[in-house]
Amino acid sequence: NFKGVFHNISSVLDCVQCQQCKLHGKMTMLGYGTALKILFLPREELIPAALSRNEVVAFINTIAKFSEALKEVRELTSMYWVSKIESTKHLPPPVQVFDEEEAENTVIIDTDLTGIEIVDSLVGVVSSLAQQGHINDQIEAELIKRAFSRDPDLMVLAKHYASAPHKFLDYLEYLGIEKEEDEPDVIIIGSGLAGLSAALNLLDRGGKVVILEKEHRLGGNSNKASSGINALCPSEGPCDDEFESFRNDTIRSAGDAAQIPLIQTLVGNSGEAVTWLRNRVGVDLSLLAQLGGHSHKRTHRPSNGMAGAEIIYGVQKRVREYEASGMVQILVDTKVTKLLTDDNGRVFGVEAQKNEQGETLTMTAPNVVLATGGFAADRSNGSYLSHYRPELLRMPATAGDFSTGDGIGLAEALGAGTVDMDKVQIHPTGWVDPSDPDNRSKILAAELMRGVGGILINSDGKRFCNELGTRAYVTDRMLSHDANYNATKKWNEASQVPTFSLVLSSSAALDGKKHVDLYTHKGLLTRIEGVTALAEWIGQDVSVVRSTIETYQREAQIGVDTWGKTSFRGVPNVDLDNETFYAGTVTPVLHYCMGGVTIDAEGNVLDREKKIIQGLHAAGEVSGGVHGNNRLGGNSLLECTVYGTIIGKKLPVQSLS
């Protein structure tokens, strides 16, 4: 039942949140269906009338995709002929079995391997490889000599691979020519936004890069970021934000641990960072929101998906465009176990282990970049979390299981300094999945949910905070529902982490539609009709919940509420009985580590005496000091882009020297 199968697959694709993935999936399925239609039509002349324009487009697209799968044919054919020629070199000359008259009537097929066009292509690719530093003068001279002498093996290789220099270079070893192993300009450990930003900037400058990632896929926790990326509005857009305002908001959140030079670098490069993501990477960041702790709208996000996933998809795609040229090598399932240093303490490479094979690799480069993320998911004995914040070990977390502080440990082994290691951010809102409420791994309820107008309600049916306050403030108000914490301001590991209701009106849900659709699809948000049903869902008397929301409506009209809130978006409609609400259960979760290795404003890693460790750099959550006591929502993707870019622009590139 082909029709039923295709309908089932189509219904599954409707659940996909990424519009690009959904479009590609449906295009492919339509192409397959069209191919079957053509095969099953009884007569060929019926084809034009039976196919729609969209089916023809999808069919051609599917054929093109299948054709891409045949791209190795040339390589395999060439390898066959190289081996064939090699195997016939030692054979005796053929015996002539026909006379001269027969010979005159024999057709000889000219393979044209000695033509000037192939020689020209061969000389061109050799020249290009030499100019890029991939071959030395000796190899260049040998290849040119063999080209002009019409070496048949080299001619075959050039015929098929002159247009693919990196493959041509790889296959030279089959001709007995040992190429030099190019040392990369930089080894980057980690493939989140910080690592990919550094890589793309280096590659755009002509650098050669190796990316090592211990997981099987790229992106790290950057893939999960959902609220957006902060930035002063780019020059072409209307904006009342300014440098001092953004700077002061960040300093206020950082508290007494604020490091002004790092913050000024972060804020001062923010506009350029978003412009780069838009123009160079091609990410849609057209929507603007105001998150908690911010005095202006400055958090940019896409209109077609989650910020982190869209940004990582775009940057990863741009980086991978350099794979074909051999300028970037990406090794997944590869965990770095040691940083290599010379007698002067300069870092010059790494030791790593392939997770599956257990193979040990040693790689060298003039510079190494740490972009390995934080340690919020490591609850093991001896972990950074158990050492610095043992009371948080039982608290759920949003970070991936891979967030184990590897990069910090690698740097500390060389004497690197650390800062703010006890500053672990507790995000106020992680979703409690009703189907698995005790799971310690939580999905983040994005800051955006409160930015568009979501309000927090406790089990008594009351609001208890300014939802747009800093993460530290909102979390403190939530944890204060625990009597022991309220009295001591210290969390007791044995205490039960409290839960709350996050409630959005219909207008707030529309404003955050992409997020709301995703969370509803995952069963984390529930659509509720009317305030009575909402009160039942919360488990409180309807008069209490109605009073709470009506008070909020009145204070929104005045412009300030009991908790000091002055920005009101997505306020519920006056007719609460006919309002549509979206509600979910949230709880405080471990989310981000402000602490990490000590760096300066250029991303250099510093030792315990604040001196630069030559050859070692860091960007992203692995580094400390940028956010102080508490990170503002939307500043993590910004930190990754800004400091990754700074490193990618400053490191020397051999081809430019």
Beta content: 5-15%
Q: In total, how many beta strands?
A: 20
Nearest-angstrom radius of gyration? 30 Å
Q: What structural class should be given to the helix and strand makeup?
A: alpha/beta
Cα end-to-end separation:
64 Å
Query: What's the mean pLDDT score?
Result: 87
Shape call? globular
Low-confidence stretches: 94-111
Q: How many distinct helices?
A: 25
Helical fraction: 40-55%
Please state how the strands of the largest beta sheet are arranged side by side: 6-2-1-10-19-18
Biggest sheet, open or closed, and with what strands and sense? 6 strands, mixed
Describe the model.
By secondary structure, this protein is an alpha/beta fold. It contains 25 helices and 20 strands. A hairpin with a 5-residue loop joins strand 7 (334-341) and strand 8. The longest helix has 22 residues, at 19-40. The radius of gyration is 30 Å and the shape is globular. The protein starts with a helix and ends in a 7-residue tail after the last helix. Mean pLDDT is 87; it is low at 94-111.
How are the SSEs ordered, and which strands pair?
Blueprint: H1 2-13, H2 19-40, H3 47-50, H4 53-68, H5 73-88, H6 100-104, H7 116-131, H8 137-148, H9 152-161, H10 165-171, E1 186-189, H11 193-204, E2 209-212, E3 229-230, H12 243-254, H13 260-268, H14 270-281, E4 287-289, E5 299-301, H15 307-320, E6 328-331, E7 334-341, E8 347-354, E9 360-364, E10 367-370, H16 384-388, H17 406-412, E11 418-419, E12 424-431, H18 448-451, E13 455-457, H19 471-479, H20 483-488, E14 500-504, H21 506-511, H22 513-521, E15 526-529, H23 531-538, H24 542-558, E16 580-593, E17 596-598, E18 604-606, E19 612-618, E20 623-624, H25 635-650
Parallel strand pairs: 1-2, 1-10, 2-6, 10-19, 17-20
Antiparallel strand pairs: 3-5, 4-5, 7-8, 8-9, 11-17, 12-16, 13-14, 14-16, 15-16, 18-19
